[in-house]
Amino acid sequence: MVTLTPEICEAFSALKVFPLATASKDGIPNVAPMGSVFLIDPETIWIGDNFMHKSLKNVLENPKAAIYLYGAGAKGCYQIKADVTVKTSGPEHARMTEMIHEKKPGLPAKSLLILKISGVFECMPGTDAGKQLL
Fold first, then answer.
1. Signal peptide: which range, if any (predicted)?
2. Which residues contact 90 (CB under 8 A, 6 or more apart)?
3. What is residue 63's DSSP assignment?
4. 65 lies in a domain?
5. Residues 20, 36: contact at Cβ < 8 Å?
6. CB-based contacts of 112: which residues, under 8 Å, 6+ apart?
7. Span 100-107, mean pLDDT?
8. In a 3-state reduction of DSSP, which class is residue 53?
9. Which secondary-structure segment (H or E) carries 48?
10. Which of 12, 54, 68, 114 has its CA 20 to 30 A from that of 2?
11. H-type helices in 24-120, by residue range?
């Protein structure tokens, strides 16, 4: 398990939309913007599924994903890779539903993707591009 540094956690908190990359069991890639994304602790990210189709199908077939942190307010660019578990009920799902409804009531909050961080990589251009940071 990988623990995010305070600097990476700060970059996370500066962003509102996170590209989520997944792949099918056959390796067909998909990337989609996610808005219901929560840093639960420095090792865990939750993503609420409100409108997923391909992304959800992919993580059910192939429980790996990546997101990247980059944009206004983020000091740096980080690719985060993770192992994914999907929940459609239980206390974690209920908590995620509450968190989503606090931001935007009425969203369906169909399922919860729990991302356990497995690696962090530099994604700024330059000689360290692609270098594993954590």
1. none
2. none
3. -
4. yes
5. no
6. 46, 47, 48, 49, 86, 87, 88, 92, 93, 96
7. 94
8. coil
9. strand 44-49
10. 54
11. 54-61, 91-103
Domain that holds residue 64: 6-122
Q: Confirm whether 132 is domain-assigned.
A: no
Q: What is the CATH number of the domain that holds 66?
A: 2.30.110.10
Cα–Cα separations (whole angstroms), residue 26 to 3, 4, 21, 58, 66: 30, 30, 15, 9, 17
Please report how many Cα atoms fall inside a 13 Å half-sphere around the Cα of residue 86, on the Cβ side. Answer: 17
Length of the chain, in residues: 134
**pLDDT tens per residue, range 48-63:** 999 999 999 999 999 9
Is 60 a domain residue? Answer: yes
3-state helix, strand, coil in the chain (%, to 5): 20, 40, 40
Query: Do the beta carbons of residue 130 and residue 122 sit within 8 Å?
Result: yes
Which residues partner with 113 through β-bridges?
Answer: 47, 86
Name the domain count of the chain: 1
End-to-end CA distance of the chain: 10
For CA atoms 89, 91, 96, 102, the dihedral sign is positive
Of the candidates 83, 68, 78, the residue with the CA atom closest to the CA atom of residue 8? 78
